[in-house]
# Entry
Amino acid sequence: MIELANVSKRYPSVPCRAAALDSVDLSIERGEFVAVMGPSGSGKTTMLNIVGLIDTPSSGRYVFGGEDLSSRSVDQLADLRRRHVGFIFQSFHLIADLTVYENVELPLHYQDVPRRRWRSRVRELLELVGLDARGGDYPEELSGGEQQRIAIARALVNDPSLIVADEPTGNLDGGSDADVLDMLTTLHGAGATVLMVTHSEARAALAERIIHLRDGRVVSGARI
# Structure
């Protein structure tokens, strides 16, 4: 599903710094659950942003779903991202003045999904995360764990083929942490491809494979 071939990323704004990613080769099969680990500054978030089509490589080749994306425009990449990638971040990024239902519904405004399908799709996702009774509430009325579950529902509303999770439990207590990880494991079991950044060996152990980064390079787990 995903292949990075000799991918590097440099940021012109920091010319003296080493590459954020340096000649990375990596493959991820459809339906895999892969964890990414490494010290701060090792390139984890840069890798996730490239895989998730938020950022583009400075050099190298990225193949997504069998298609080389090298010649795709920014708008075309954004369209692919909206249709195929769901993001779960450490910070929930919920919109405070929208209800839970409206937060989950929001990505559907940018998709070619018939409006008559919106209500059933949103309710389906709220049931999945166990918060179907909270659709009329606002984010500030929810606990941290509940807010992250709403963020997961929003990430899934477009039925993405790839779920990208950047420290998805970093702001949660132990019980909520376990709930979110259980949900990611369940989604993987249902066939989703999951790429998760974590600093925790225990959380990484839930994945089928662990990729270790150091100084912008993959030092283990690439399998290409």
Observations:
- The two ends are 12 Å apart (CA to CA).
- The chain has seven helices and ten strands.
